[in-house]
Write a structure and sequence with these properties.
Layout lengths: L7 E4 L2 E3 L2 E3 L2 E11 L5 E2 L13 E6 L4 E6 L3 E3 L18 H10 L10
Antiparallel strand pairs: 1-4, 1-8, 2-3, 4-5, 4-6, 6-7
Length: 114
């Protein structure tokens, strides 16, 4: 994944005995990279080896911050696409629309034809 500062992400819940971090929707504030000697650096240029970040700092949308979150718990935010509400079509009943309706129903009126 291509992570960068300011990107919106979803942080997975990390709740098990001894840990109570609910996660949620957040914005990346800092990227941390592993260096060749095993330590981490937070420079903005991809670390010493130019690799991918290993940990991030975030600010949650609903408030709060968290630092040094491992990348395994981070997913890119995907906004769900929703359709609008379906609304009833207001049909005006006229004699012409009633006769065309009979042709579409093969002459059955009332729906109880045998």
């Amino acid at each position: 994944t291509d992570l960068k500062i300011g990107l919106q992400v979803d942080i997975e819940s990390r709740t098990w005995p001894g840990i109570n971090k609910p996660g949620g929707h957040a914005t990346i504030t800092k990227l941390h990279y592993d260096t060749t000697d095993g330590s981490t650096t937070s420079d903005g240029n991809g670390g010493a080896a130019g690799g991918a970040p290993t940990k991030i700092d975030v600010k949650y949308v609903l408030g709060g911050t968290e630092k040094q979150i491992e990348i395994t718990y981070v997913k890119p935010y995907v906004e769900l696409v929703r359709g609008g509400r379906s609304r009833r079509v207001d049909k005006k009943m006229t004699v012409d629309s009633f006769t065309t309706g009979e042709k579409e129903n093969n002459g059955a009126v009332g729906g109880g034809g045998k």
